[in-house]
Amino acid sequence: MLAPRKFLRRRKKEEVFKDAADEAEQKSWRKMMKEIEESGSAVSILRTQRSRRESLPRDLVLGTLVRFKQLKKWNLVSEILEWLRTQHWWDFSEMDFLMLITAYAYGRSRQYSKAEAIFRRMQSLGPEPSPLTYQIILKTFVEGDKFKEAEAVFQSLLNDERSSFKPDQKMFHMMIYMYKKAGNFDQARKLFRQMAESGIPRSTVTFNSLMSFETDYKEVSKIYDQMQRAGLKPDVVSYALLISAYGKARREDEALAVFEEMLDAGVSCHTNNFVGVNLTSVSYATMLSAYVNASDMDQAEKFFRRIKEDGLKPNTIVYGTLMKGYAKLNNLEKVMRVYERMRVQGVEPNQTIFTTIMDAHGKNADFGSAIVWFKEMSARGFPPDKRQRTSFSL
């Protein structure tokens, strides 16, 4: 029997160049990129490059910008673009302005005011902002909590007869999200109706947005039915929202019926990832929450077993939901049993798990153990929230 290798050396991928000139160009560009990253500034390096040749090739500059954008090094992107704005040899296009707005909006310091200034400059001096630019600036305003500015831009597009285009579906979606974020649900509903009146097609995403801020299960169910009557197929988010609404109302039978409908529709077979979260797993966790909300831990345990039978590996969300159910019933022993099961399966705890355990010990007046778990949470790099700092006199 062959002894196992201690390690496997990966073969270095062989690079293919068009010719010797292409090889020299690529290696020169990489050297320049390394110099920029090491110095932390781009303009001085680009100036040096320009002094060595008659001009900087447009492809080289664009490649540099795109690469730093991919790396999310927005400070370098904005530095290069601001320099290019002053260069007579560079035709500063709308896409350059758009990238500059994005760089200011998503950079480390979130310079929303600078992003807005670039947009206002485009409005007054050109080039005229395109629908894509309006989509980006609306998103920038909403993420920066500049709701009045977003509303003003949207309404100007909607009501200005001189405008060459009107708000599209993505702009309506962003504004509905904004009103939800601001807690102005009536205005969000008004925009939802206005989409139909303006002939803007409403998608599953539109209906999901409306369902997401309704608290009454009857209203959520009504919107869900309306979506189906419009000929739209619910996705995993739609089902999760309806299951959650029934679960919060302690109507676990209706929640289970919707869950089974989701499986019959084959929705769970699709890969639905959003910010690294598998939405199918979230749907199972949502159904589990329905039993937990009803304090029916027997059914919750049965459904937990079903998750594994259906071929899914319970994640932190699922284990955390089950632990919260037992914590709600003040059953510390069961909380800790679920935690041990989770660790045996190799699932790492998160801050929510630690908080549930600390609260469970606190309810049982076992403050010594609560402090031990608090220290364990801190040691794993999870900072305590304000309530926890107050509780433990930090």
UniProtKB/TrEMBL annotation:
Q: GO molecular-function annotation terms? A: mRNA binding
GO CC annotation terms, alphabetical:
chloroplast
Whether Glycoprotein counts among this entry's keywords is: no
Q: Could you list this entry's UniProt keywords, alphabetically sorted.
A: Repeat, Transit peptide
Q: Which GO terms describe its biological process?
A: RNA processing
Question: Could you tell me which residues the PPR repeats occupy?
Answer: 93-129, 168-202, 235-269, 280-314, 315-349, 350-384
What Pfam families does the record tag this protein with? PPR, PPR_1, PPR_2, PPR_3
Q: Which PANTHER family match?
A: OS08G0191900 PROTEIN, PENTATRICOPEPTIDE REPEAT-CONTAINING PROTEIN PET309, MITOCHONDRIAL
Name of the protein described by the UniProt record: Pentatricopeptide repeat-containing protein
The organism named in the record is Ananas comosus var. bracteatus
